[in-house]
Amino acid sequence: MIDIISLACIAIMVFSALTFFYNLIRKNRVDRIEYIRSFKKGKGVFMYIYAIPLFWVGYYDANKDIIDSLFSAIKRSVDLIILGYDTTHIKDTIDAYPIYRVAIYTCFSFAAINSILLIISFAHQYIWHYFQIRKFERSNKDKLILFGNNPQNHAIYFSDKERAKIIIDEVAISDSKYNDDILYKKKILHRNPKTTEDYIGKIVKDVLSKDNKFIIIINTNNDSANIKICNYFVRAISDLNLSKAKYAECFKQLRIFTFGDPKFETIYENIVDNGHGCISYINKYRKSAIEAIEKHPFSLYLTSEQVNYETACINEGYEINALLIGFGKTNQQFFLTSVANNQFITMKDSRVVPKLVNYHLFDHEAMLSSKKLNHSYNRYNNEFGKIIIYEQNKDEQNREYLPLPKQPANTLFHKLDINAEEFYTDIRQIVCNKDFTNINYVVIAFGSDLENIDMAQKLSSKFKEWEVKNFNILIKVRNAHNEVLFAEDDHCHIIGNEDQTIYNIDNIISDSLTQMAQSRNAYYEIERVVTQRKQKLKQTEIDKIKLQSHKDWYMRIPQLDRESSAYCCLSLRSKLNLMGLDCCPKTEKVGKEVSDKEYFEIYAKNTHLVVSDLNADGKLIINYPLEFDEGLRKNLAIHEHLRWNAFMISKGMVPAPKSAIAYEKIDGEYTNGKNIKLRRHGCITTYDGLFEYRKIVAARGSEGKKPAPKELQRADVIKYDYQLMDDAHWLLTHNGYKIVKKK
Questions:
Q1: Residue 23 CB coordination number (10 Å)
Q2: Which among 72, 155, 215, 371 has the fewest CB atoms less than 10 Å away?
Q3: From CA 489, how far away is CA 493, in angstroms rounded?
Q4: What are the C-alpha distances in Å from 275 to residues 255, 272, 518?
Q5: How sure is the predictor about 34, in pLDDT bands with cuts at 50, 70 and 90?
Q6: Rounded to whole angstroms, how far apart are CA atoms 117 and 106?
């Protein structure tokens, strides 16, 4: 019997050993570590399956008492788990039965191996952490430092495959649900020092003492902590007491990106202004909204029945509605970004006029007025709503302002819960008109991912029930949900995947729009120098201008102007759509690429373009007249000025009075009405108002006489509304895109 039980236990042990190593090999790192450590958490009871029978048969052979032998076996098996090796009472059986001897010592070995693996696992954790810290400190690679131990920073950490990286969190890891064990299992290097001003100062000095570049991400999920760390960095950089030229080089080595709630946007923007070009503010809601507009501009879903591609004008009889379900942080930012991009024009009495989008805002408690909106979008209406009426009643000569533009959107707030009886009734009244010609867009961002998806499916069903044809639904879904099947052909589109759009190192450092805007800024500077000198530049000069332009982007150009340039590039796709075209990355196999010649045949049809003999490093230089031909090209310039107005108004900028355009100076230089501190701009006017603006600015050099054409040319800003689409083909192809025919 002893040999039979011994053989059975050996078989169980061999099977368990093979199973253990098989599972160990096939598991990933996290599961493998957990599997090794599972013995400590009570799963070692599996040992009882073979240990208890082995000890029982040994004790029974010695005293012939079944019950006493059983309890002795159980006690000895428990001791074995903590390596309590005691063979006193079974020594005779071990000596008498060789098979039993093999079985009992194999059992002892398994207990020892399990404990050794457990010890090695924990020892390896501390050894790994020690050497990874040393490796990080001595690495010659560029470095990534993330402040904040949270899932968002983990996503950024794993998205970076190039840099040496570490997470810093002053909250003790043991106090966090993302504890030491979890970080080790995920191979995330971390430290938890106190983030004092001295500590940050050491980081800054360490950065500037080395040749490699540092990327700092401040994202603690606590705005007070974010702002405190940002201010430490501002003071540490300022305390370096570098020359202006040296400060201009700092951003090359040190780039700091701070996330923050838009409620505190002004605080963060002040930090950016004082950060010597090193600090950038990330509003995740804005990034998400920009991505949604970039992929799904309203113009993308317009057909040739709804828009005249020859004029870029919306045809008569069509109303454009945008229904925002939920008006929290996500949809408030979507509203601002959409207003700044989704602008349209139409024909009225043979004149191009704005075609405003009707925004219907649904929320059970939020109001159209809020601290953020009153500081931004609502400021124009609050301060200029009555002024517009007063100005219209004055003689043109006595008006204090240039012609004032309309508010860039129609808005109507619906204080409704999604469960209210009137919810679907109100929506039906909006989307259904007599001839079903309304063009409808719905953006759902009121709840969790699944709640948003569920509402989208309900609305999609309702629209089909009501026979609504012209609709598209954008659904805010933060994370991928593989369990939910959702068909794009139901006019529904997922937006807002945060890991792809926001918490990705490449999108943080330089997204495609920023790169395009920087490129455009550099080449316009090259064009300015070429035009001024009237000669071709050497490549060394071109490279020098590009480098200086890159510095200026961070050091000299205000945040507002940087955003304006990015939003300008964002509008490219919308404008192309209005003329029957589209754009996509060159790598996509979508349609035949439209050549430069084909593009201008569509865009500048029946328009006389004067192209300079010189070029800006390959980019055409177009000479702009004081008057422009009628046609698609001019319509798109009017559209661009409407869009620029909308962007400025969405940022809280207001028109400057004529007196400021004519006389205001800052540091001895005429401002032409542009004063970012006072949030005023002289060009916030109608397209026709820009001609009067040009006269006012040109008159300063005319000594009371009628401005000469040369002075008017120098003061002209109308050409900037033409430049975007004049350069669209070059700009897109230069930045990895292609123009194709719209589907």
A1: 12
A2: 371
A3: 9
A4: 10, 5, 20
A5: low
A6: 16
CATH 3.40.440.10 matches 139-282: no
Compute the distance between CA of residue 431 and CA of residue 440 in angstroms, rounded to an integer: 6
Q: Do 364 and 305 touch, CB atoms closer than 8 A?
A: no
CA 393, chain centre distance (Å)? 46
Q: Tell me, what's the pLDDT at 707?
A: 84
Residue-averaged pLDDT of the chain:
86
Which residues in 1-142 belong to E strands, given as ranges? none
User: Does an H or E element contain 439, and which?
Assistant: strand 439-444
Q: State pTM to two decimals.
A: 0.84
CATH 3.40.50.720 in the chain is located at 139-282
Average the pLDDT over each of 78-92, 299-313, 665-679 and give the range with the smallest value: 78-92
Question: Do the Cβ atoms of 704 and 555 come closer than 8 Å?
Answer: no
Q: What is residue 295's predicted lDDT score, i.e. its pLDDT?
A: 94
Q: Which residue has the tokens 């430069």?
A: 596
**176/192 Cα distance (integer angstroms):** 11
Q: Structure tokens of 191?
A: 């430290």
- Two tokens at 27? 């598991």
Residues whose CB is less than 8 angstroms from the CB of residue 61 and which lie 6 or more positions away in sequence, other chains included: 2, 90, 92, 93
Q: Which residues contact 577 (CB under 8 A, 6 or more apart)?
A: 297, 299, 300, 302, 742
| CA dist., res. 549 & res. 338, Å (int) | 29
Residue 330, classified by CB atoms within 10 Å of its CB into exposed (0-12), middle (13-18) or buried (19+), is buried
